[in-house]
Amino acid sequence: MNNNIITKGPLLFVGFRLQCKTLEEYQMEIPKVTKKLRSRLDEIVHQVDEHFTYGIFKAEADESEDGYWVCMQVHRVQNIPIDMEVIHVPEIKYAMIHHEGLPKDIHQTYRKLHQEIERAKLKHQPTKWTLEEYDHQKEQTKHMIHVTLYDPIS
Questions:
Q1: Using CA atoms, how far apart are residues 44 and 81, in angstroms rounded to an integer?
Q2: Predicted TM-score (pTM) above 0.85
């Protein structure tokens, strides 16, 4: 597990907030919102790397932080595009794992990561920001995604 532990942050992101009622609804809507974000990349200034989009969420969140953000990491915030929001993620220690496969199978990869966290006698922190880093240098389709999952731990 030690090779899969990293501290990231503080980080800044700009993107769209998505709020759905069910997991299935999120699975349908996230690709649409990602496509919308990628079509508006020219509006987001100071991007860290245009080849990576991020999904950000808290597994346990109050109403103000409930949802899933599809966003780009930025060096600094300037001129927030219409309909987009800014997310400030403090420095957080993460356990990480790569998922390459069907989007619907990402939850199995999270279960595997949570088991590894437990075996390493670490604690998952569901009230802190989880990051999903999507690599668009590799083709992302409805049948295959390439994503690194960063799950907050202590």
A1: 7
A2: yes
